[in-house]
Amino acid sequence: MNTFLSSAQEAVMEQYRAFAAKAVGPISSKLETHQVCLKEFLQNVGQKGYLGLSVSREYGGQGLPFLNSVLFAEALSEQEAGLGLTLATHFAVIETIKKYGTDTQKSRYLPLLARGELFATLAFSEEQAGTDFTAVEAELVETGTSLNYNGKKHGVITGDFAGLLLALTKNLSSEKDPLALALVDGGQKTRINIGPDKTRLGMRSAYINDLEFKGVAVAKDALLVSNADSTEAMANYALDVAKVVVAATACGMMRTAVDIAVDYANKREQFGKPIGQFQGIQWKLADMETERSASLLQVYRAAWSLDEEPESFSTNAAMCKWFAGKMARFHSGEALQVLGSYGLGDGTMIEKIYRDAKATEIYLGTSEAQKVQLTKLLKI
Ligand SMILES: Cc1cc2nc3c(=O)[nH]c(=O)nc-3n(C[C@H](O)[C@H](O)[C@H](O)COP(=O)(O)OP(=O)(O)OC[C@H]3O[C@@H](n4cnc5c(N)ncnc54)[C@H](O)[C@@H]3O)c2cc1C
Question: Could you tell which of 127, 245, 366 is best to mutate to test the pocket of ligand 1, judged by most ligand atoms within 8 Å of the CB?
């Protein structure tokens, strides 16, 4: 029982779980090896309304709180964590447009993003600009009526097929703000070189590509502008949203890891009894469930605060990201340990979770970066 969620939200979560078990469970290994087309899968998810949960009805969404998007990502990640990662950037762009977009930008993009007819991602990182994303070198150059976007981006989730990129660039036209955020049309394929999705330790179902932009046309009304916040603050907001979704992804995989470990501990016998009857194993399982639950509460609080307590959102997002990531990395290892040599088998779910979990401490903001952020917010 999860006391943070209302009974209605608990019921909705069970629906998301049922959808994930049916739609993702049977194909999770195929998603990981790209034998199932991720783009088509996401289009299907979008048609069912799950990509626009937190988009208002006015723009074709379900008009639910951000927490629902987070619950959905958690449910999918119980089956396939790379899907949670993929949704992290899509939801980050949606929430950023909701908060900072003009009416034109909202009506142009939110309906398409909600229906899965367009996928969105963040194009922030560059080779030399990771944690310090303010060091970006990509630039927008004025060409009379419009802008030209040039530069290279590193590690862009769904870079392969995203039709909308929230791209961070240097700002050459204003001395007030050194950075600019633009909504870039990813469909200009002849002007975007897409690097391969390189093999990596985990999160293999996601597509992650390096991109090179060569004179991509960007309309002047595609810039995100805020009177209240700098571009750096807007970019941090997008990242904060992504972090909460990544932390939910970590919680989803932890739940599956605990279930697998408990099931195995009940079945596997050594010294004449199930290993789950040994206190050493019981304590591992108790630790896992307690710390999964603590991570989840932080994630739900962070998601809730986006709508209900915006002033604490950034702090909550940083806390839940590093905590859930650390717990997922540690407990996926503990769960694997419970399975002994069987846990090491290539292609088992627990081996996959062990590989996927590490990534939650790195992508879309490392654990160290979260602590740096918290240090600033706490004014230490
Ligand atoms: C799977 C994956 C998907 C990604 N998807 C996207 C995406 O869609 N869009 C996008 O823009 N980017 C994406 N990224 C990039 C990601 O956000 C960056 O990798 C991340 O911000 C870290 O940057 P870096 O890898 O360059 O590490 P670096 O910044 O070079 O850091 C290296 C190490 O130094 C530490 N460090 C850095 N600064 C400090 C400090 N001040 N104090 C203490 N320690 C510090 C870091 O924590 C880390 O341990 C993705 C990365 C991965 C791995």
Answer: 366
